[in-house]
Each structure stands twice: as structure tokens, then as C-alpha cells.
Structures
1.
Amino acid sequence: MDQPATSGDLKILQLTDCHLHHDPDKSLLGINTQQSLEEVVASILASGERPDAVVATGDLVHDGSESGYRRLARSLALLGAPALALPGNHDAPRVMERVLGAEGIQVCGQLEIGNWRLILLDSHQPEQEGGRLAPEELERLDALLEDDTHHVLIFVHHHPLPIGCRWLDRISLANGDALLERVRTHPQVKGILWGHVHQSWEGRLGQAQLLGTPSTCIQFAPGEDEFALALEPPAWRQIRLQADGTLSSHVHHLHSLPLGLAVDSLGY
Ligand SMILES: [Fe+2]
């Protein structure tokens, strides 16, 4: 998918881990995930933000239901920008591709926009919580990076390196090193962004920023060995891309925690 070059900074939004259900009234650990996503979208619109693209980075529908993906598409459409999505461990990739594709949302693939190329990778493994990039997915990445004159952002669901939460680091991207090695050897890659960890995480590898983004519903506590929730409101990441390859980003939260969060939950 190609977009015409635009002048000025590009504004990209990352929304992740929406965990919608077939039943729009269903909650996850006490939070209505549909309502939480709608509040995030309303807050973005109220801020006057008009993105050039929106990227949804997995665990979009907790039960993989068609109706969940249809409601996700409706929410993303309100943002008025090309939308792209990739699967997380909770998604049903075939359903996702069929339903979102019919709504004009690209699943995985890549988007050229101005001087930048956004590359979306599929790390989903059937029946597994952890992720892995299949050999053909790495080959696709290699082909896109070869002789590329664009600045590059890579999006993937699972985190490619440990973030200091032992329980989450057991279900990370199993071959994250293969991705990080490509970043080391391709200076045009300016960032890797992921979901999955339900918390903000920021690091660096050479020229590239490494960015974990919190969920549009529940958040996990940083630095914990076992599952623990954080008392953090739903969130999203706003990314600014300049023509010279400069990347800046900021995580925005709703002002308050949604009612009902089951703070003593032992898992999800
Ligand atoms: Fe998630």
C-alpha cells in the first residue's frame, strides 16, 4: 500500500491490546474493553489530533470474534486515517484478515508514507502466548530493508527483548535477536514498536528507539515477576516522524481509571 508523499511531520497513532469481545458489554478484569476503546478514540478526537496513519498492534479482539473485529474497524474509522493492524496472541488471524480487510484495514504488510516506511510483522503462533517471526516473515523484512532509502518503523506484537517483567519475558518474541540484529545492520530503521506488555517501555539500540506501548484497556505493573495489574488508565502512543528521520513519541493516558478494575486479579 502506498500513500502520496506529504509535506511536514507525519503523525502516527499506535493503539494496542484493545481485547474486545463478541459481547460489547463484556469486561476484562472489571473493565469494559469496548467502552474503554471508545473513550480513547473520543479523547484523541477531542484533542484535535488528525493522524496520517493508525497502527493497531495486536490482541485487538480477545475472543477472535467477527463482531469484535467489526466494532474495532468502526472505532478506527472514526480517526479518519489509513489504518493498519497486525495480530497478537489473542487474535484469530484469518478472521481478522477477512473482517478488517473488508473494511479497508490492511493487515500486516507495509505502508510507504512520505520519507518513511512502516513495516508490520506477524509474530502470532497458534495456541501460544509467546511470539515468533516465521522464516518467511524475516525474508519479507529483509527484502523490504534491502537498499531501502526510506526511514523505517517496525511494528510487531511481542517484545523482542526482556523488559524486566519475568512473567511477560517468558512469553516474548522467541527470536527477538533476529529482529534486533537487522536493526543493528540497517541504520534506516529508526524504531521498533510493540504492544503485548500493557505498559510503557522505552529503550534504544544504536540509532533505533525501542518502544512498548500500554493498552487501550488494562495495564500491567512494571518490574513484577508474576502477573500484577497497574493502576494506570487506558492509553495510546502518538508518534511524530520528521522527513530527516527524526522520531519522537509520547504516551497519552485517559485522565482517570475506568470504574470496576479488579485490582487483585491473579491473571487474565
Ligand atoms: Fe494483550
2.
Amino acid sequence: MFSADYHIHTGFSIDSDAPMEAMLLSAINKGMNEIAFTDHVDYDSKYYPEPDYDSYMPVFNELKEKYKDDINIVFGVEIGLENKWADKINALTAKYPFDFIIGSSHCVLTKDLYFDQKEYFGGRTKKEAYTTYFDELYKNIQTCHDFCVYGHIDFVSRYGMYEDNSLNYSEYKDITDKCLIALIDKGKGIEINTSGFRYGINGTYPSMDILKRYRELGGEIITAGSDSHRPEDTADHIDYAYDMMRAAGFRYVSVFRNRKPEFIKL
Ligand SMILES: [Zn+2]
Ligand SMILES: [Zn+2]
């Protein structure tokens, strides 16, 4: 059965030291038919500079050719979306021939949710912090045009500093629905990010209720990604994510060519 890990980092991201080939071999060993390398670019974060694509492209092209009988590799990127950087982000996506773009919110109002955790969450109630996150996410959808799926759409709940960080969909229904509808209207998907199994929530980003809601509202574009930064984490819980898709009513998983979704039966 077809299986694809659509969120993998390599040593070209500053937070990974894994050679691209090691990530690739691990994915092949775990039975992946296709993977997307999605190294980071975040303009507001001091921590995720643009990869050196002059060094990146020869390595990527060589590996794509070398392993073409074993796996298909997609040229992707994970861009930290922020509406204040929309022009710069749109210029980046126009410059490189990415096949697949994850747009994620790592920074909100210039604060990195992980590295600047105290600055972002410190002065805000949980309700304020989570609502602001989705307000900004909505603005990002309106201003950053070229992404394919929104990454880990309820990511704010990973780094909250509250007694209970979980994001209960029913409490944030209005703003979450507004974002999901905007994504659907613009032909954008979401991903199931399985890194939550490695970050202590024993689940995915987003949770099942948001996934179901995206489908219920008419959304059809869905990918699954491990968000691995180490070879041992590639393909992690992808089969679980595919089961979630089926349970939420999806009949197809998406792959991307030239930023356009193609649909493969689940
Ligand atoms: Zn991310
Ligand atoms: Zn990532």
C-alpha cells in the first residue's frame, strides 16, 4: 500500500545534523514509496535561516537519481509563515521550484513559540495566546500565497505554559473554522504531523476533531509527515496517520507535483 512521509528535515536545517542520504535510506528501509524533504526557512526566527540551496540542489538531485528505483523524492520546504514577511516569503517561493511547500506558524507576532516561549505565553492567558495564534494564522493564509498545506495547525498547544496545554476544539471553534474555511477556499490542505508522539502528547497535530472538521467542511487535501530530524524518526506513525485519515472520511492522500495536489487512494 502507498505510503509517503511528507515532512522530513535534514542537516540542511540548522536543527538537524542528519545527512540527507541517511534520512532517505531510513525512509526506504521503512517502506516509504515517496518522501518530501522540507527543510526550514523562517524569516523572523534567528534560528532557521534559509538553507544554502547552492549546496543543497546538487546533493538533492544526485540522491533523487541514485535512488529513483526505490523511492520518489519531492523537493519541498517548510516555511514559517508570518504576514509581516509575506513579500519576502512570496519572493522565496517564486525563486525556487519547490514541488511542495508546508506553511507553518513557528513565530507569532515575531515571537518564536519555542525559543521565545516566555515572551509569547508569559503575558497572555491561554485563551489570548491560542486565539492570537489563530488570528495570525488566518492573516498568513490571506497574505502568503504559495504554500500547499498548513503544517501542524494547532502547534500553539505544543509550547503553552499552562497547566493543561491541550487545545479543545470546541473552545476555539469559531476561529479554527474560519481558518479551515479559508484554507479550503484557497485550495490548501493541512497535514497530520506525527511529531506529537515524540513530544509528549501521545497524538498528532492536529488532533482528530480538527482533522474531521476540515473534512466535514469540504477539505480534501491531506498529507502525513513525521517531522523527523533524525533517521530513526522517519516514517514514524505514518500508518497511524493514514488510519486517522480514513476514520475522518478521507478517501485519498495527496502527493504534490509542481505544488499541485495529486490524489492517491487510501
Ligand atoms: Zn514545524
Ligand atoms: Zn518541521
3.
Amino acid sequence: MIDMHCHIIPKVDDGSKSIDISIEMGRLAKECGYNAIFATSHYIIHDNETENNEYMQKINELNEKLKEENVDLQIYPGNEVFFTNNILELIQEKKICTLANSKYILVELPLFTKVIPLNVYDEFNRLQDAGYVPILAHPERYEFVSEDINTIVKLIEAGVLMQSNIASIGGKYGRHAKKNIKKMLKYNMVHLLGSDSHSTSVYENYNKYIEKIKKVIKDEKIISDILVENPNKVLNNEKIDIIYPNIKK
Ligand SMILES: [Fe+2]
């Protein structure tokens, strides 16, 4: 099982504050049943730009450290890219990492806008034309989703995959995100689950969150798809076949 979204690399963003915390996060992730993690450090243009060589070095260092500490967990490169209209160029210039060098790229949007920024569709289109598959990070957290859940349906119909945070179901991001993720799970609008861990806390509460998710999704096959199979497909750069949302517009 692979964690789709995690800020485990120390001191590159607002995630892990030290190598010791990263090791502890790895240990707890392993206990939850993960055997790999996509490191998805924030990349925010003009604000949090990680230098690629240095970033890859940090990933290698963490993998080495985990081995030394007997934590059998593999960290793969990735980024959580804050939306900009040159994501394609950033990939081509190797300034940002797709997930484990696959065609899948994790993108986040501004949290507080009542409507989705207009140029999002254009940029996602450009990425798709170049062979990439955009994955939207934590859709349940966006204000425009609380305003109109059908925006997610439109994005899915445009070929964008949805990665939800497991802790949203426990209210970690407020009541709107909790309500949104419940609805998204119920209507097959979640394709991938991730922890979005910035420290140890989500892993510490992992079982509690998964229990709550299983109360909404009763179908074991769907749970397995969004937790295990689809993240594996990302790692192996395989196509993810999705079930289209069964929400009534
Ligand atoms: Fe994140």
C-alpha cells in the first residue's frame, strides 16, 4: 500500500521538521500498512521552490536512513504543485517531480475561492495533451467544492483524478471538508486516498479514519481500489480506470 500524499521530507516545506520526525512518520506509516510513500513536498512558485538535485538528495538520504533504522519503507519522488499556468514547463524543466516519474502529477488549487479559477481547465488540458494525468489534491477542502460539488463531476469528466485526504472524514479540516468527502465517497468521486501527513498525527489516527470511511463505502473492492490498487497503478505508470460519479446533477 502506498501513501499518495505525504510531506515526509524534512525541512523543505511545512511538513516534517527534522530527520527524526521523518523516521518516526515512516515507522508509523509502516504500522498502518504502507510499504511506500510518494513524497509530495509543496512546490509553490516564488514561495516554496525546491531545487531538484537537492530534493532528490534529500529523498535518497531519507531512504538510506530508513534502511539504517530497519524501517522497510520506500520513498518515491513527487511534489504537490500549487496551481500555476506553467505546470507543463515546470515538469519539462525538471523543476517539479511527477509521482515516481510517472505520467501522474499532483496539483493543489487555492483553498478559498468560491469558483474554480478559469484557467485550471486550460492548464489541465495542456498537461493531458502532453501525456500527463493531473490528480487534484484534497478536493473536499476547496471552497468552490462546498459551493458546488458538481465542479468535481466536471473535473472528473475532463479526466482529472481526485485524491482525498483520509483525515477529512474525521473533521481535521473542518465541517465542510467532512461533509464534502462523505458525499464524494458516497458518489464514487474519490479515486485515490492519501494521508497528507505533515507530522505523525494522521498515521496515529489512521485506523479511526479508515473505519469511518468504511462506514460510507461498504464495497470492499472500491476501498481496495482507492487505497491500494490505484496508488499501485500510479507507481507502475498504468492507466486508472474510473467509475464515473453516480451523483444526480
Ligand atoms: Fe499536502
4.
Amino acid sequence: MDGNGHLEFADLEGVGPGTPAGLYFRRFWQPVIRARDLPPGRPKPLEMLGEKFTIYRGEGGVAHVVAYRCPHRGTPLSLGWVEGDTLRCRYHGWRFDGDGRCVEQPNEDRPFCARVTLRRYPTREYAGLVFAYLGDDAPPPFRNLPDLDLPGAIVADPVEILPCNYWNKFDNDHGHIPWVHRATGLRKGRKDIFVLRQETMTETPFGMQSTRFVKGAAGDVGGALGMGQLSYFIMPNIRLFFVRTRAKGYEDSGLWDSKAVWVVPINDHKFAAFDVTYTPLEGKDAEAFVESRYRQQEAEAETRWDLAHKIMAGEMTLEDLPDDMGAYTSFAIEDYVTQVGMGPLKGRGKENLAATDVKLALLRRLWLREVGALTAGKALKDWTLPSEPLVYRAKAAAGV
Ligand code: FES
Ligand SMILES: [Fe+2]
């Protein structure tokens, strides 16, 4: 805070309960795990927004998010067992149903289940992700993204967990592409990656729109940016943009992915990025595409951050990544090393923002305005979602 009680950028770093940004995040549904990473019958500990929880999928298939600790004596419930749709604590066997009611206290002669409750959080599955509402108030209506509701192939990528603040990802801009992703561009023969890019930003009813162009040209030169001329940020933390599909074997297919990325802080020093892509393929083509995406990416996800750490330690370079690595994975590694390498907001030293840093300038302004209003008890902007898929606008801009 400055001397007048106004929020400053570094005040947005903290996300725990009661922090300004933490309160703001808790006003929206957030993805917490990929649906395929939560098999039935196996409770897991979950950390989100600087808080711990327990997540499990009942044997009937419904995902539940409940408190981290058992209300009896505080043992982590992720150590326990799933029985039907209920969760049993490993310490003394108390059992809780999906609504957080205590339904059994096996050791007690005079059970007092009615007086014990386990905090639970509303959940919802959508686009291959499990969402939860982690706020204290009644949840707002769940928001579908019209772009992900079109008929087509939906793939939820392996979740990217990066050991740095969520702003390191929020601040990522369009101008980085020819530099950060140069090695992938060279390896895959993607000339479009090398054009120098600029963008203009405008605030919209849902967040912000970026209009992108090749440096020095009024419009997109030679279709280099294609549908990537437009991209969107849906407040508070969803990017939606359009990229040529990077799936191995589909690089020359002419297909474009719509890519939605939810960036959710795990704590002040770590975030999760939930990437979901929509690709306009249907029927058997869609099945083959999804199957090939999962086969390659799940395997590469095992080792991608080991490679990133070797690069950060100077033991290898991005140019040394294997030629047959899928471009989704190499893009992820390239972004990882630049973003994680920036370290915490505090202690980074003075920034020298330039005219091309318009995206992060507007995003920081919107966040400071809204979070400032929240902490001052003033009215917040009621962000609305676009009523039709934004891909239509991107297609029109690209003339396809
Ligand atoms: S601590 Fe969970 S049943 Fe005792
Ligand atoms: Fe990138």
C-alpha cells in the first residue's frame, strides 16, 4: 500500500485467505484439478489460493472438495479412504458424506454426529477440469466459455505447475513469441513465429481484447498472425487465444486451436495453469486427434520440468531439446524458464516498462482497480462473458 492506503502492484502478490487478491480470486469459480487426474476412490491433498483442502471423487463419479483436516483431531483427510460417496478419516474412522455431514463415529458409545460438520465447497466439472468455488459466500452462477461449447475436440493438457507468482504468467505478453519460442520455430520450420509483434489493448465487458499486428505494418502481413490477430483476457484469470495446432502430425493441417488458459495461484510462490484446447474436428477425426495429443503430451509431461531445470542451470539450452518433442511441450518449457527465472515480484528491482508492454499495463490497472474497490467496499465491475464464441471474431479478422 502507498501512504494513502492505495494498493500497489506488489500488494497483489499474496493470495491467501483475507488478502486483497485472495478475496478477489475467491469470488469466481476456479479449476482445481484436471478431471482425468482425479480417479474415483483416491483422496488427495489440494492446495489452492494459499489454502489446503482435500479432494476426492466418490465411487459414483462425483468430485468433492472438503476441508483439509478432519474436524475430530485434525488429521489430513487425504490419508483416509473413499467409501461410496463418503470419506473416512484414517485416524479414528469418522466418516463424512459428500455434503460434509458426519455419518459415523465408530468408536463412540454416544455418537454426536449431528454436532460435527466438515466444510465442503461446491464443485462442477467442465471442459475436462474440476472447478470449485472456494469463497465464503454463495457461489455465483457457473460460467461456460462459448468457445469450448462448440462441437469439436476438447483436450485438457497436463496441468502446468510453475514455482513462481501468478503475475509472472499474467504479465506474459505477445512480443515474447519470436524470442522465447525461437528454438521451437526453428525446429518446426514455423516462419510465422519470427515476425516482430505489437499489440493494442482495450477494456471490454468481459476483460480485455488484444489486437495484434506485425511491427511496422498497419495490418497482418501475409497472414503471419492469422487468427492469432485477436486474443482475449476474461477477468479475472482466463486467457483465450487462437494458435495453429501444435499437435505432432497435425502441424501442416491448417487447423487452429482455440486455447483457454486458467491461471490459478496455488500459493504466493506457485501457480497452476490449466490449458484447454478446442480443435474443430469431429467424429473419428476428433477421436484420433485427442488420442494422439494425450499419448504424446502425457509422456513428455513426466520429464519436461527436469529439462527446464537443466536449462536454467546452464547445463543445456533450449536449442538442445530433442527434435521430435511436441511443440506444446517445448513451448511450455520455453515459457517455464523465462517466467520462473524472473523470481518474485518483490526484490526484482525497478522495471523499465516500454510502449510494447501495453498488455500488462492494462491488466495490472484492471486488477488494481477491482481489488482496490473490493477492499474499499465499493462497487465492482460485473464482468460478463461474451454471448457467442470469440473464435467467430478471430476468423472474421483473419478473413477465413
Ligand atoms: S482425527 Fe479424524 S477421526 Fe479422529
Ligand atoms: Fe509463450
